[in-house]
Amino acid sequence: MSELKLFNTLKREKQVFIPIDPAHVRLYACGPTVYSYAHIGNARMAVVFDLLTRVLKTLYPKVTYVSNITDVDDKIIAAHQETGETIDIITRKYEAIYNEDMAALGAAEPDIQPRATEHIGEMIQLIGALIERGHAYEADGHVLFNVPSFENYGGLSARSRDEQVAGARVEVASYKKDPADFVLWKPSSDDEPGWESPWGRGRPGWHIECSAMAEKHLGLPFDIHGGGADLKFPHHENEIAQSCCAHGQEDLAAFAAVWVHNGFVTVEGEKMAKSAGNFLLVHDLIEKYPGPVLRLALLGAHYRQPLDWSDQVVHQAQKLYDKILRAWEELKDVDENQQKVILNDHNIMLALCDDLNVPEAFSKLNALLSSIFKKPEGLEDLRPSYKYSLIKSLELLGVEIEEVKEESNSEIAALLEERTAAKAEKNFTRADEIRDQILVLGYEIEDTSEGPIARKA
Ligand SMILES: [Zn+2]
């Protein structure tokens, strides 16, 4: 069995992954706040942790992947005030859209996708335990976590005390004992969502949600906690503090043993921001490109590195995907029941086990594709192995082969030929007519260096 190595943010090094219980590997990643469409930063997280889950599922008999839905949040309340739609309608709508959009990118729904609003009881219990142990206090209708009460606070992001105070984004409030203290529970006005609690009607702070849901569905400690690098501080730091302190633990690994963070996404070198007009939504991109192409583009850079999104990145991914499809056309009829073997040069699992080294996996995949296209004489018996390697690679990478009709549909093929002839005669009106005819049949034409290809629109 391959040995999996992962970079553990908590230990600041790449380590051999040793599950707490090899019979059941458990991981959690922070999911979306559902009040709007997901952007490609959200998508990168979903795709990276889907990939990690696929690798783990290849190595271990049972893996549980939990990723939550945050359906109570001030941004959701703001969306409700802005649109007049009820909070339930907003959150259910964007939860469904999120899952559909991620499915288009080949990211399977997590094994468990808990909603915050269905775990308020667990959160209240956790907050109660923190008060009892002297780590939290009630002030002015709020309950706050007292940061100086936990000596090991800040160990994940390794921030100094000054940076912690500056980074605690909550405004300095007079009721805070310490400027770094953060909210566990806050009061709700009558027109805001709220639940009865020992501290009055209110709602949870964001951080406590993940502590409660991870513990309920995975038990403590669990193996891997993931999320975007932007969540390291304060969100993940606060999750650790809450979960450790509620159980009287000092070791930061008493919550999750391994912390995995994916890098930022920028767009053509710029930070993505609504105000900059470069806010890319998955919902829009899947209208323009096949899901597997976007997935390959999102996976292309090593997951810990920043990913700079550009047309060029998508174009490269499209080229790779086209090659995969052509290779599949070559191999799809090869008998799979013959003897087969995955050569090391083609074994992307070896690359993925090295801290999800996708760039290395892609170069192995490209080596496999080149071998397939070479069609060496007298080596016909390697084709079942190539086919097997390709299927295994695509399964691991989560890249699905969409049904492609590359001139296999005779009517389309004849039209494509006629269009090529029309273009050669510079009869562009006729060429456009044929393109529209093909579109009516449900196919789009793409002109590649090797001639036109029709694919399902
Ligand atoms: Zn979280």
In short:
The protein has 457 residues and is of the alpha/beta class. The chain is built from 15 helices and 16 strands. The site of zinc ion has 4 residues, from helix 7.
What does this structure look like?
- Helix content is 43%, strand content 16%.
- The chain has 457 residues and is of the alpha/beta class.
- The chain folds into three domains: 246 residues, HUPs (Rossmann fold, 3-Layer(aba) Sandwich); 137 residues, Orthogonal Bundle (Isoleucyl-tRNA Synthetase, Domain 1), CATH 1.10.730; 52 residues, no CATH class.
- Strands 4-3-9-10 form a four-stranded parallel beta sheet. It has a four-stranded antiparallel beta sheet with strand order 5-6-7-8.
- Strand 11 and strand 12 form a beta hairpin.
- Helix 6 crosses helix 7.
- About 1% of the residues have low confidence.
- Zinc ion binds next to helix 7.
- The site of zinc ion has 4 residues, from helix 7.
